[in-house]
Structure formats: C-alpha cells, structure tokens
Specification:
By secondary structure, the chain is α+β, with helices and mostly antiparallel strands. It contains 15 helices and 19 strands. Helix 6 crosses helix 7, helix 7 packs across helix 15 and helix 13 runs antiparallel to helix 14. The protein starts with 15 loop residues before the first helix and ends in a 19-residue tail after the last helix.
Length: about 475
Amino acid sequence: MGVEPYGERFARTHFCQDLLGNFAHLEGRPVALAGRVMALRGHGKASFADLRDQSGQVQVYFKIDVLGEERYRLFEQVDIGDFLGIEGTVFRTRRGEITVEVRDFSFLAKALRPLPEKWHGLKDVELRYRQRYLDLIVSPGVKETFLTRSRIIKALRAFLDQQGFVEVETPAMHAVAAGAAARPFITHHNALGIDLYLRIALELHLKRIVVGGLEKVYEIGRVFRNEGISSRHNPEFTMLELYQAYADYNDMMKLTEEMFSQVAQEVRGTNRIVYQGREIDLTPPWPRLSMIDALKEYVGIDWLTVQDDAEARALARRHGLSIEEKATKGMVLEELVEAFVEPHLLGPVFLLDHPVEISPLAKRKKENPELTYRFEPFIVGREMGNAFSELNDPVDQRLRFQQQLEERQKGNEEAQALDEDFLLAMEHGMPPMGGLGVGVDRLVMLLTDSPSIRDVILFPLLKPRED
C-alpha cells in the first residue's frame, strides 16, 4: 500500500490521562496522542479503538466521513498491538465516554505478533518473567509494581539525602571477593590478564571512602552472588549500603526504623501495611531481641550454659538439625536461630548480637567478646538487612580475615577472602562507624505485597530456553 509501517518521531501534545482528568478544558480542542492499540471495535463505516500510553487508556473514534475512504481503508490494516500516532478532537459519546475523533493517524510501529488474549489465564508463570514486556503490556498490576519500585528507590534517596548522606559509586569488579559471605561470579580482564570478581557487597569500598573523610555515604547498586534461585534470592540483586562515622549499631537501628517508616508513608501513605494477608505496623520504635534471648523464648534453650563447640553441635543434633563436625559454637547458634526462631519474627523486630565467627566485619561486644554489635531487621520472618557497629581495629580485622581463610580451607566456599588493600586503608586510621545494608528488592516485595523476588525484578535470571 506504499505506507511505511515503522514511523519516526511523533509530536505528542497530550497523554491519555490528560484527557480523562481535564476533559472540561480540552473538549472540542485538537490533541495529538501516541500509544499502543489495545482493542478494536468495528461498526461498518465507523470504528472504535482503545489507545494506551504509560499514563492510561482512552477511546479513539475512526469515521469514514472524517478520514475519507482511502485513509479509512488504511485504518482497516490496524491490528491490536500496533503503535499509532493520533490527531483529532476531544468529545464525549452519547454513552458518556471521553473519546478522540480521529482526523488523521500514522503508523509508528506495526506489531507482527499478536498480544496474548487472555494473559491472566496463563498458568506458565515463567513465561511472564521471560517475556516481561508482554506482562507489562497486559497486566496493569505488574506495571504498577515497577512504578512503585521506582518511587521506593526515590524515597530511599530522599530520606538519606535529608539525613546528610552523600551518594557515591564504587566499582562493580573487584580484585578480591570480600565484604559478605557469598560465592562470587568470576570474570577475566583481557588487557590486564587478571581474573576479577563481580562484587558480592558494597561494603569495603564504602568504608575506604569514610577513611578518606566522607563521613556519611551510601550507595544503591547491583551486587552479584553465585547462589541458588528462590522466592527470596536472585543471583543479581539491588543493595542499599550506608556508613556513618562516629555512629554505632544503635544509631543504625534508629535510622533503619525511621527509613522504613518514612518510605512506607511516602509510597503507601501509611505505616500499617498488609503483606500476604498479614498486617504489619512499621511505626517506630521496633522491638529489640538478642539471638540468645530469642532462642530461649522460642525454643527454651539457655545458650549461656553451652560450654564449647562439641556441646553446641550435640544440642543442635538433638533438635533434629544436621550439623557438620567443623561447625563452631557460634555457627551452631546461627543454625538454631535460623531454623527455630526466624520464622516467628513477624516483626518488625531487630535480631541482635550475632556470634563473632559469622560476623567478621563487626565490632566485638565488650561484655561478651564471643558476640558482636550486629543486628538484622526481620519482617514477616524475612531478613531485610544487616548492620554492625563496624570493626575499625586493623589488627583484629586481619585476625578475622585469617580465620575466614581457615574456614575456606576447610571447604566453606562462602568464607570471606583477605583483602590486603582494605587492611592497608584501615591501618591509616578508620573512625568508629555504624553501617547498614538493606535488600532493596525485599523492601519492594514488602511494600508491593509481592510473594516472590522475581515479581519485583524486571528481568530475573532464568535458565535459557531449550528450543
């Protein structure tokens, strides 16, 4: 027909929502809209279509008397899914629906494949994740989830900026995989001829910045952990980490509860939210509960009477846990709490004072050096973050790293590596500080009532299709 089906720039004057929200001002006036055709209804010499853009959807009216016979025949080549540019005037139909009478139109992109007709009836959830663009087109709730995600990240930034934190960026490729207990992804730099690791945490570079004199810093960035995939885990995910000089984990608890509360208020308009049918009140202050007290409350175990590693392992096995022979007392405490306490922490609640063996970057408690000034915020039985009074003694830090290396030699692939460059920075003097890491995806899950992390990541990792 001599018509180019893939157009170029289109000078849009209004969005669909402008017409719906400001009809009284726009009635009878010319407008230019651009969007995707979502429905077609033909009536002989007149037809209706639904045109959707990011703001919403509006009805458009094609009439042979207005367009002329040739242009109307061209309209008959329009399919659901096509992108059109529409020029026309705004009016209201006899049934009261706000509509644009089309004076002219142009093809902006032809859809060669049809949209799913009954997307909500599809049982193949993986297909939704694999073809997220279709999910966004035909599932309005999905689009709203990702718009909300954007608002959540904006609210996090606004809160931290108000608190005087400076946003920074740190490398995504590291010479040493440190800063968290996780297996890294390995890549190779051809020009330098060295292996590098995709970062498993933001922590150690941010601490170097605090050494350099920026006293309150944060970063929102992607991190990569070579781990399994579940409703709570994706190998690539988004972390918020922040560090504040001269603060401790008590300051971080106050900041955490205030941040969650303010973000919920900004995004949801309330601190009382419902997640998977359960009401959660994020209003500060949140309860504080030590791991040892929690174990006694929920399991009836008095951990303070446990004398050594062997007794701890035997105790755990009596409670039905499979414990490796190399597990230390602190590791066993973590296993017991994870199995028997965490599912009950509907929260919000801060779980405090983790063993030193599993907290190599946290400062020891003065009153009990086997434990650290560390906490994890829990909501609906799910860990939402991790925070410490940060260890700033380079001698103790080197010893902790060496103990982690021994763990690695015993077969623990997630034990942390020794980062000499970070130790060098510490040896120049690192101020006491509080640090906090929050899983942004889990926060988005909470505030959008999403059951799986895949529901809040636009393109979650999937195994390639075997066609």
